Amino acid sequence: MATLKRGFSWVIICGCEFHLAQNWWSKLVELDMSETADTSAEKQEEYLLLRFLPYVPKNEVGATYEILLNYIDIHFFGPFLDYLEINYIGTRDHHGITIDNGLFKRETWNVYDRAITAGMKTNNSVKDYHHKLNLFMGNHPSLWRFIFKMKEFDESIYSDVRQWLKGQVPPGRRTWERALARKQRVAQNFDVLQRIHYLRSVASVLAEAQF
């Protein structure tokens, strides 16, 4: 990422929330904690409170994390908390207050601003585009077949766009837009909700959306 910023200083680097969640869960698996976190209702809720820290405003992450430590089993989650502090949350001073970023700056993995503006929080749309392109192309197309397929693919994409502009939105898209609006409303209520209540609200909305 540092190399990218040196070459393209104007670029804003935003991490994918989906892959962040996968990474955190993989760490639980590595620490042999995932089965308990998945089967125990209490531990599952506690993990979800941690899991949705990316939906907290960047300047509130440290303070919210300190509050969370009073609600979760720090003895069980201890090794995972160490991992989060080193890589994402930041180190803590002798008073237990978070004083800096982790290895990955909050600007990279935090999605609060993107939730407020209904911006992209994952790169799933790019992956879907690549998947559709691969299906069109098949394996090892010849040069002329590649050119023909690219033209066909381009027309397919513009056909979809024309349908959307006419209001012919796929049912899945409508479901996605409703879920996006719910996440946006929850994020807008950050200042009026207690931190734990806010994180539980985010978890509830995302559980309903299932993405």
How would you summarize the topology of this molecule?
Elements: H1 2-7, H2 17-30, H3 34-39, H4 41-51, H5 61-68, H6 74-89, H7 106-109, H8 112-116, H9 124-137, H10 143-165, H11 171-188, H12 195-209
What would you note in describing this structure?
- This protein is mainly alpha-helical and 211 residues long.
- The chain is 66% helix and 0% strand.
- The chain contains twelve helices and no strands.
- Helix 4 packs across helix 12 (195-209) and helix 11 (171-188) packs antiparallel against helix 12 (195-209).
- It starts with a helix and ends with a helix.
- The mean pLDDT is 81.
Strand count: 0
Strand content: under 5%
Shape: globular
Write the H/E string, N to C. Answer: HHHHHHHHHHHH
> Count the helices. How many?
12
Oligomer: single chain
- Return the structural class: mainly alpha
Unreliable segments of 5+ consecutive residues: none
Share of helix, binned: 55-70%
How far is the first residue's CA from the last residue's CA? 26 Å
Main sheet: strands, sense, barrel: none
Integer count of domains: 2
Task: Compute the CA-based radius of gyration.
Answer: 21 Å
Q: Could you tell me the mean pLDDT?
A: 81
